[in-house]
Amino acid sequence: MTSTLYQFFVGEINNGPHQTTVFNSSFLELYTPDMGLHKETIRAAQGPQAQFQQGHQIPIQHQEQPGLQHEMEDPKPTSTQFPTEDNSYQTYKPAGKLVGKKALITGGDSGIGRATAILFAMEGASILITCLPEEITDAQETVRWVEEKGGKCHIFKSDLRGAGNCKKAVEQALEKLGAIDILVNNAGTQTMIKDIKDLDEEQWEATFDTNIHSVFYLSKYTLPHLKSGSSIINCASINAYIGRPDLLDYTSSKGALIAFTRGLSNQQVKNGIRVNAICPGPVWTPLISATMTTSAMEQFHETPMGRPGQPSEVASCFVFLASQDSSFISGQCLHPNGGVVVNG
C-alpha cells in the first residue's frame, strides 16, 4: 500500500521482496528496493515541490501566539511560488496590475499578509503593513522581500484592537504613502476551544475586537480617502460556511465579516469602491502552528485536493480583487480552499 509520503511521486509500489515499480517523478529513474532510493525519494518529497503535491502534510510544530514565521520549521510557507501542471513549481509572474497603487495591509508580517504584500509589490504597488510589536522581525523580513522585488514597504507596529490604533494606522499609511487605494483587512486571531462552556467571555470579545471590530474601524477611517476604482478586501474564512465547532468565536467573527463585506459593498459600490472578501481553507501560516492542536495539524491536508494551501495561492486572489481584472465584482467571496464546495 502506498504511504502518504510516497504518493507525491509514486504511481504504484509493489511491496514484494525484490522490486519497487513505476516512479513518475523526474527525480528518479532507478527501480530498486534499497534504502538509498527510498531516502532520495524522501528528500525529493520534502523539497519545494512537496508543498504543492497531493498528500503533503505540514510539519507538526507548536509556537506561542501570535506565531512567528521565522521560527517555523521547514518547509516554511511560500510567498511567491505556485504549482505548475507538471508537478513542479514556478515563481509568480507579475503583469503591472497595481502600478502606482498604494496599499494598507494589516497583518502583513507573515503568512497570507506577507505574501500579499510581496505580490502587490511585484505588481507595482507601494505598501504599508501593520504588525504586532512582537512580530517586528517577521515584518522586517517582509520589507526585505518587497525591496528585493523593487518595491517600497513601511511598517506600523500596533495592536489594532481599538479604534485609536486603527485610526493611527490609516494616518501612517497616508503619511508614508501619500494616499490609499487598497485596504486589505487581513489581521486575525483564533484559539481552539472544543465546547462553548470552556470559551470565556474575554476570549470571545478579544476575537471579535481583532477579527471584525478592527475591520469596521479601518474601513470607516480609510473610506474618506478612497476614490472610484479603490478596493477594500477582507480576509474571511471557510469556517463561516462549514461552521467549525472548535473555533466557535473565530467562525462567528468571520461570518460577521462576510455580512459586513456584503453590506458595505452595497453601500459603497455606487461610489465606484468595490468591497470583497476571500475565504481561505486550510493554509499553512504561523497562525496554524501557534493555535492548532497536534490532531488538527495531522488532518490539515484533508481537502479534496489532498493538501493544504500556501499563502501565495491566497495572495494571488488579493491581487485579482485589488486590480481592474475584477472591475465587475463587488460584494463577493472568493474561495481558495482546495476544492471544498460551499455554495457561498
Overview of the molecule:
The chain is of the alpha/beta class and 344 residues long. It folds into 2 domains: 5-45, no CATH class; 79-334, 3-Layer(aba) Sandwich (Rossmann fold), CATH 3.40.50. Helices cover 35% and strands 11% of the residues. The protein has helices at 35-45, 111-122, 136-148, 163-177, 201-222, 239-242, 248-268, 286-291, 294-298, 311-322, and strands at residues 81-83, 89-91, 102-105, 126-131, 153-157, 182-185, 231-235, 274-278, 333-334. It has a 7-stranded parallel β-sheet with strand order 5-4-3-6-7-8-9, with helices on both faces. α2 crosses α10. The longest helix has 22 residues, at 201-222. It is globular, with a radius of gyration of 21 Å. 45% of the residues are buried. InterPro entries: NAD(P)-bd_dom_sf, Sc_DH/Rdtase_CS, SDR_fam. This is NAD(P)-binding protein. Keywords: NADP, Oxidoreductase. Residues 77-88 have a biased composition (Polar residues). Belongs to the short-chain dehydrogenases/reductases (SDR) family.
